[in-house]
């Protein structure tokens, strides 16, 4: 089998210095975890490199065979799952290190906002130079900066009361540093994930209200969202197995209808009892794009993944309308 070296560059709104990928007999799979089959970006990478594209939703591939993973994550979990495993990750959405796994996303393993025009085959001279530069960078990262100084002899062990004081001080220091680190990580997540999401939702509300889009959308979804039967039907639609993995990334329907219904309920145009069933009606697709990733993180066997993904998707088709009906009945108790 003939393989070629390719370069994947970031898009105009992307992040990362680009990836140079060279498949071989042991690592020759381009895993597409985007939903809806093989994404065109994964197909282009496979076409130019000679690797094999595989749909990550219906197939489980050992990590050591994966050349690169193509995802469509806006910055929650999947964006950091594969970089944490040191697998080259190509995100078709614009984005930068964010989310709870942001510390694992580095520019040597991740690139974002990638389209089919950002993938190019390298010539023999360019490929050799790129591979040599990559090997040099890895060698430099693996080589210690200087020869470590000889380890000094351990200090004499304290005994008696002083030993107890030292142990107590070490324990207090460990607790304080743990709490300080937890606070630092929590604040980092709030600044990089929670606050930007709140700003995004505020911007979306402003746009749909100012431009009149809310009125147009209201005329479209009112037949479904203004009565319990319509909400149940909406819950069925968003949970369709062939549709839910596509609606999951970005949650476009959930965000638009959620903002619209919340605004209408806040204005008093719809009764507040519609809030709870609407929540379940628009969230039937939540997590459906993450099923194969979650099973992979749980080190599930290939047979488990092939059955588990379909099982979860079809289960959502049943539980989503049931949840809407239960939420509608429960809303009268609030």
From TrEMBL:
Give a yes or no for keyword Aminoacyl-tRNA synthetase in this entry: no
PANTHER family for the chain: PTHR39427, PTS SYSTEM GLUCITOL_SORBITOL-SPECIFIC EIIB COMPONENT
Protein name stated in the entry = PTS system glucitol/sorbitol-specific IIC component
Source taxon at top rank: Bacteria
Domain PTS EIIB type-5 span(s) in chain numbering:
2-195
Naturally occurring in which organism (per UniProt): Brooklawnia cerclae
- Tell me the keywords, alphabetical order: Membrane, Transmembrane, Transmembrane helix
Residues that the record marks as modified (Phosphocysteine) are 73
- Membrane spanning segments where? 193-213, 225-243, 305-330
């Amino acid at each position: 089998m003939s393989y070629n070296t390719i370069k994947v560059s970031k898009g105009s709104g992307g992040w990362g210095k680009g990836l140079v990928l060279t498949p071989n007999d042991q690592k020759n799979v381009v895993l597409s975890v985007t939903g809806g089959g093989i994404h065109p970006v994964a197909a282009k990478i496979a076409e130019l490199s000679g690797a094999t594209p595989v749909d990550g939703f219906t197939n489980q591939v050992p990590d050591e065979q994966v050349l690169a993973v193509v995802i469509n994550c806006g910055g929650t979990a999947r964006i950091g799952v594969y970089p944490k495993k040191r697998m080259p990750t190509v995100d078709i959405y614009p984005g930068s290190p964010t989310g709870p796994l942001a510390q694992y996303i580095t520019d040597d393993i991740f690139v974002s906002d990638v389209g089919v025009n950002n993938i190019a085959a390298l010539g023999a001279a360019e490929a050799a130079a790129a591979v040599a530069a990559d090997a040099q960078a890895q060698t430099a990262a693996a080589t210690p900066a200087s020869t470590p100084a000889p380890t000094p002899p351990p200090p004499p062990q304290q005994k008696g009361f002083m030993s107890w004081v030292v142990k107590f001080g070490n324990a207090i220091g460990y607790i304080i540093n743990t709490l300080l680190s937890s606070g630092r990580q929590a604040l980092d997540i709030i600044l990089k994930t929670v606050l930007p999401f709140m700003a995004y939702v505020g911007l979306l509300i402003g746009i749909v209200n100012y431009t009149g889009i809310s009125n147009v959308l209201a005329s479209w979804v009112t037949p479904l969202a203004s009565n319990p039967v319509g909400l149940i039907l909406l819950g069925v639609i968003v949970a369709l197995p062939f549709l839910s993995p596509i609606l999951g990334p970005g949650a476009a329907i959930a965000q638009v209808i959620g903002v619209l219904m919340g605004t209408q309920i806040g204005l008093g145009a719809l009764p507040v009892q519609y809030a709870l069933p609407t929540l379940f009606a628009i969230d039937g697709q939540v997590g459906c794009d993450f099923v194969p990733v979650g099973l992979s993180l749980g080190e599930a066997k290939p047979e488990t993944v092939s059955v588990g993904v379909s099982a979860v998707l079809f289960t959502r088709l049943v539980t989503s309308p049931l949840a809407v009906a239960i939420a509608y009945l429960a809303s009268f108790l609030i």
